[in-house]
Design brief:
By secondary structure, this protein is α/β, with parallel strands linked by helices. It folds into two domains: 78 residues, 60s Ribosomal Protein L30, Chain: A (2-Layer Sandwich); 146 residues, 3-Layer(aba) Sandwich (Alpha/beta knot), CATH 3.40.1280. It is 33% helix and 21% strand. The chain has a six-stranded parallel beta sheet with strand order 7-6-5-9-8-10. Helix 6 packs parallel to helix 9. The longest helix is centred in the last third of the chain and has 16 residues. The chain is elongated and about 55 Å long. The protein starts with 5 loop residues before the first helix and ends with a helix. The chain binds S-adenosylmethionine. S-adenosylmethionine (SAM) binds next to strand 8 and helix 9.
């Protein structure tokens, strides 16, 4: 594969474009198969690798800075990976651990940050609905490549399997981690409008994270982080 193929790879369903050191690092660390890796500064990349990820082997082809900027204006390293095979959504829902459901997230950086914290907190998977592809390169950059650490699915419509769906909703009942089940489908709404009535109708309960007076809501990814870590710390 050549650097010129990266543009086509962005539109190829079985491929994933990784931009930046952390995305490439996590893809490699979690078993990603890289088909090509390019940098304009191999020495600087090697310094980063030695400092931040001596556990990974990273070999990048040298390309001219202009060529790299044309395919990715800011990244120091760009790679194309095969999109990893993962268990289907029903298998994830049938398994252990909490699953995060993002209803129509709009901002790819938020989406990626939610995947990142889900991976860090040990969630069983992330599912999204709506217009955005959760494997978009900007979401991968936001997750620092941690899409490779857990199943990330894009669903046409929400599915719950046999799980209890718990809606995170600023207008819900107070969030009490110890009173909640061990394996939930935790639903979070879109940035501006929150959860739809259709999704709220699927929920067995609606819970709210506490906020100081006058604050309307948390940022989506922040709400995912606060929820998963409150559960993790309570259930540890
Ligand atoms: C930016 S908020 C959406 C705000 C929207 N105006 C609302 O009232 O839901 C995005 C999502 O984060 C979650 N969220 C934000 N703050 C929350 C809180 N204090 N308690 C529970 N969920 C919260 C909800 O799932 C919400 O749909």
């Amino acid at each position: 594969m050549e650097l010129a193929d990266v543009t086509r790879a962005r539109r190829t369903p079985g491929l994933v474009v990784l931009e930046g050191f952390h995305a490439v690092k996590h893809a490699l660390r979690f078993g990603g198969e890289l088909l090509g890796t390019w940098t304009a500064d191999p020495a600087a990349l090697e310094v980063l690798r030695l400092r931040l990820a001596p556990d990974i082997a990273l070999a990048a082809q040298l390309v001219a800075p202009d060529e790299l900027r044309q395919v990715s204006p800011r990244a120091q390293v760009v790679a194309v990976a095969r999109r990893p095979a993962q268990p289907d959504a029903d298998t994830v829902l049938a398994g252990p651990g909490h699953v995060v459901l993002l209803e129509d997230p709009r901002h790819l950086g938020n989406l990626g940050a939610a995947v990142r914290v889900a991976a860090a907190a040990g969630a069983a998977g992330v599912m999204t609905t709506g217009r955005q592809d959760p494997w978009h390169p900007d979401a991968l950059r936001g997750s620092a490549g941690l899409h490779f650490a857990l199943p990330v699915h894009h669903l046409r419509a929400p599915r719950t399997g046999a799980r209890e769906l718990v809606a995170l909703d600023p207008a819900g009942e107070p969030f009490e981690p110890n009173a909640l089940p061990q394996r939930m489908l935790l639903a979070f709404g879109t940035e501006r409008d929150g959860l739809t009535d259709e999704l709220l109708a699927l929920a067995s309960r609606r819970v709210a994270l506490p906020m100081a007076a006058g604050v309307s809501s948390l940022n989506l990814a922040t709400a995912v982080a606060a929820t998963l870590y409150a559960l993790k710390l309570a259930q540890a």
